[in-house]
Structures are given as C-alpha cells and as structure tokens.
Specification:
Rossmann fold, 275 residues, 10 helices, alpha/beta, seven-stranded mixed beta sheet, binds S-adenosyl-L-homocysteine
Length: 275
C-alpha cells in the first residue's frame, strides 16, 4: 500500500465537509460510492450506486431484527436503504460532522425511521462494547484510514463471533509505478486517501485482525464507468462555484478520470466472518 502519512480522521472529515458544502457528496444521488452495471444495461449512475449497496446487503446474510454497523456511513443512504429493505437496525458512523447531520435529517423522514442512527466516531477507536453488532460493512471507507489494521481489529471486537463483515474498496490490481504513480499520488492527496491496497494486502490485513476470509472478488470492470460519471458531475459542480473549492473539485475530477481509465485500477468486494 502506498501510504500517505498525513491523512488523519480530522483531515478526512474536513475534506468531506468541503465536498459536502459544494454539493459534491450528493452528486451521485446521495451514495458516495461507485455504481454497478451488469454488462449491457445503462441504468443511470444514481441507480447503479444503489445496486452496489444491494450487492453489499446480499453478502451480509441478514436476518430481521439484527444490529449492523455501517463503518464510514457517508450521507446515510446505504444504511437507510439496507435498514428499510431488510428490517434490521443500523448504526452508522463517520468522521464528517456535516455528513452525520445530513444522515440524521434523512433518517427522520425515511421509512427506516427509528431503525437507523448516526453518530460521529472514528473506526480506529469505536465507542461500542465488545460483540454489540451482528455484522458490519465498510463501503469505500477503509482506504481513508491511516491504520486499517486497527480499524479491522476494532470492527472485529464489536461484531459478535460468527458475524460478518463486508468491505468494498478501490484496489490496485498491481502497484502503480513510473509516471502512473503521479495519478495514484494525486488521488491520495485530493481525496485524503491513506492508501489503496492490492488484493493481497487486503487479505493480509483481514487475517492479521482475526477475520476469516469467505470471498474476495474484483468487480472492477462492472464499476469502471463510475469514474467518468463522477468526473462529469464534479466538473458541473466546479463550473457553478465561485470559491476556492472550484479548483479543488475540478482537479479532483481530472484525477478521478485518469485513475478510472487505468488498467491497474480494480475494485474489491470482500466478505469475511468473525470465527
Ligand atoms: N460508505 C458511504 C461513504 C463512503 S465515503 C457510502 O458508500 O456512501 C467515505 C466515508 O468514510 C466518509 O463518510 C468518511 O467520513 C468516512 N471515514 C473516513 N475515515 C474514517 C474513520 N477513520 N472513521 C470513520 N469513518 C471514516
């Protein structure tokens, strides 16, 4: 993993607050993650991102009444969708105050009202008792954490034995090298990413933290169109802004596009179990 040492939960929270102020964290319809396309279909990105949420839910082996933890919950859309569809209770945590406020407001008017709650917390130091959840998921949040092993250990601690963890994340199929390293470094800087793992690094970290790997699949080609959609949405937002954030968001769009085109860019869906 290429590590950017100055990424901290505070700096991640701040960058998401900047993006939220600019409207960029709702550009994909509320979800802050890639969309999933099944081959030839061309559903809009806003629907395709919900499909990724449904894919995650499908790997969690949910039963009504269970308690789930959403690690790095963004605007709350995945938690509300899963709580609404599966009759489970979800606690979402993240390190952006704006996202927590947005998620809490959304919960009030959602069909999952009363079954989803959101709070500010750092995944590397979770404020929950041992074994308090039946399962957990982390959609595109681990990559922001400077100590992913600590986060995976903390999630392991708060999920009961037998419970599942589903992680989805960007991956480097092979390490970026040479000139391409600039694209990767730019992504890390602009998006406050601590590091993007190879699949083997994901496997090693999970094992270190005590998780049993059930499945790891690279669905990179099914999600690849997302980067172009996100870049277009970001450019639209940048063009409408008259603030310093405009430059930041348009640079973010260029990097996103270059990263999304690169053949080494993959996307993992991981299912693990606490033995
Ligand atoms: N899972 C959401 C959001 C993904 S964006 C979705 O799919 O829509 C990444 C999220 O990770 C943001 O909400 C960010 O605040 C959160 N995050 C980053 N570092 C974190 C940390 N150390 N602890 C908790 N959440 C974190």
């Amino acid at each position: 993993m290429t590590q950017q040492s100055d990424t901290t939960p505070d700096s991640v929270g701040e960058v998401y607050d900047v993006f939220a102020d600019a409207g960029a964290t709702t550009a994909l319809g509320g979800n802050i993650h890639v969309g999933y396309w099944d081959g030839a279909d061309d559903v809009p990105i806003t629907e395709a991102t919900d499909r990724l949420t449904d894919l995650v839910a499908g790997h969690l082996a949910l039963r009504p009444g269970q308690r789930l933890l959403d690690v790095g919950c963004g605007n709350g859309d995945p938690a509300l969708r899963i709580a609404g569809a599966h009759d489970v209770r979800v606690t979402g945590i993240n390190v952006s105050h704006q996202q927590i406020a947005h998620a809490t407001a959304q919960a009030d008017s959602s069909t999952a009202r009363g079954r989803a709650a959101f709070q500010f917390a750092d995944a590397m130091d979770l404020p929950f008792d041992d074994g308090s959840f039946d399962g957990a998921w982390a959609i595109e949040s681990l990559l922001h954490m400077p100590d992913q092993a600590a986060a995976l250990r903390e999630i392991h601690r708060v999920v009961r034995p037998g419970g599942r963890l589903v992680v989805t994340d960007l991956c480097q199929r092979q390490p970026f090298t040479g000139d391409d390293q600039d694209v990767l470094d730019g992504m890390l800087r602009v998006y406050e990413i601590a590091g993007i793992n190879t699949p083997d690094e994901h496997r090693a970290r999970l094992a270190e933290a005590g998780w049993e790997l059930l499945e790891l699949t690279d669905i990179g080609e099914r999600v690849r169109a997302s980067y172009g959609h996100a870049a277009t949405a970001f450019r639209g937002i940048a063009a409408s802004l008259d603030t310093a954030a405009a430059g930041q968001i348009s640079a973010a769009a260029d990097l996103m596009e270059a990263f999304g085109r690169h053949p080494h860019t993959g996307y993992v869906v991981i299912t693990a179990r606490r033995p």
